[in-house]
Amino acid sequence: MDLAEEEKQGRRGSRSSIDEPLLPPQYEERPSRLPSPHGQSRNAGDDVERMLNPKRKRSGNGRFWTILFVALMGPALLGAFAIFFSNSYYGDGWISNRPHADSGSFPTDIGFAGPTITGKEAGLLLTAPAPPVQTAQPPLVAPSVGGKKHPFNIMQSWGHLSPWYSVDSHGLPKTDSLEPKGCKIKGLHWLQRHGARYPTTDTVEGPMGFAIRLKNSNWTASGDLAFLNDWSYKLGGEILTPFGRQQLFNLGVSARVKYGFLLEQFEDRLPVFRTESQDRMLKSAQNFAAGFFGIPVEDQYNLAVMIESPNYNCTLSPYAMCPNDNGKLGAIAGAKTQAWENVFLAKAIKRLQPLIGDYSLTTRDVKDMMEMCAYETVSVGYSAFCGLFTEDEWKGFQYRNDIWWWHTSGFGSPVARAEGLGYAQELISRLTHSRLTEFNSTTNSTWHDDIHFPLNDPIYVDFTHDTVFHDVVTVLNFTGFAASGTPPTDHIPKHRSYISSKISPFATNMQFQILSCPSEAYDIDEAERSRKSDEYIRVILNDAAVPLTGIRGCPENDDGKCPMATFVSSIQEIIGSIDFEKECLGRGAEIDYSAETTTGAPVYLS
């Protein structure tokens, strides 16, 4: 899961006392054992062999203590929640009291459907003069910053909390996502992040932590903060918001309109999509499928749902199986983001403090208020917190998230390549139509058979988290994103390449287009042409092509194409250079987390 979005570790102090409100009743308390910056926790002494064996039974000791804890402390926790959420939607909302639908009294299949003639599959990317562009985010409402003369879209400055939008360019301004001239799209590998969600249930940091701190203090607000006098926390926890469901449904429709023609290549089998068991992951896949296939979807595709939990291998949530992705990494990244927060939030604290004089605002408070703006907007459509900050402060917030992701999951993370290894292996397996025979990363042999992991389909769709997008960008060596190097923590560079809202916003999507480009060989003789493959690959991230020149042998060109054989060979070299047992499991060497890396590979202590 992408709980890194709340930086639960590295800057966390002691947990709240048992008398403080913690999580809503439907959530379990998470033990903080060797926590990672992605919200995972694990026993320091876990057997690494078990970590690579998803079939091995887990010990019953943890289950016993969990049951005992719940039995003894459950009433106190529930009481605390009742206090905190007494003025919120928890406990008395429409969802908790709704009756079951009465399908017997309200049948939907009653005949008399009228004509049901299906048209031919769409292929917008083959025929349109220009691709569609995602800019607006209805039905969300964000305040205008900068006025009519200099409008500024704050929703594109929320980093991983931004709703996805069409990026103008990743460095190839002369191309778009349409089928390149002289080529034919013949296959698609689609990687999709879940849609907008409610915040994680963190009682120390983030929106819920801020709400708890306000609840436990005496204060009166005035001026621009006067709305806090009647404000209450109304957000859920971690599942998709209605807008998040809409994002995935709309993306499914968009994918069908753009790539529907590829379905004509399916003959005796259905497409296989993959997702994880986490609620927002499962619902993201189902909403996407509803948009792509139309309801009812059950007989139109197969959905492989993999367990997302520590001790289960899953390439789409790899951090759960990487002990080196831990609190030490979170501490380094947290210190760097806090250094920048102290710079860009200083004026905001000075401006807002007089408006809530009995409460001493901290940097954490103001950062959490900015997160509250983003989460409330994608949850309930609008947030009064958004208008509290200036354009420069929102740019600073975006940059703060860039710093965090660079160091936890991007080119500045010592475990990024190792965590992205499993997906890279599966991508090459599909591209070469050859089955994996060695499972030496987060790949799970249980799923690698002809039924669950087909190798000759024209369409693949995988659902994952923001963390994995940063891992994939790093392991596939998309170095255009690393061109400006490690982000400094005292200023925003004039030119920078690593912008998290362009890489991993809510519902971010990456498309690997498989191309047949016979025209590429027209300038060589017939004998050479017969030996030269016309198969190419290119990558589209949020509607913009990604330069592949960081991959050895991939040429510079306006379209971002790379010969398939070159791409495969070079990625296989990268795969061969990664020692998962050493880089993730910590066998044989200890990572120096304080050492700088710009490749996603670790530096070891001597």
From TrEMBL:
One of its GO terms (molecular function) is acid phosphatase activity. Residues 1-56 are annotated as: Disordered. The chain crosses the membrane at residues 64-85. InterPro entries: Acid_Pase_AS (IPR033379), His_Pase_clade-2 (IPR000560), His_PPase_superfam (IPR029033). Pfam families: His_Phos_2. Keywords: Hydrolase, Membrane, Transmembrane, Transmembrane helix. It comes from the Eukaryota. Residues 1-10 have a biased composition (Basic and acidic residues). CDD domains: HP_HAP_like. This is Phytase. It comes from Filobasidium floriforme.
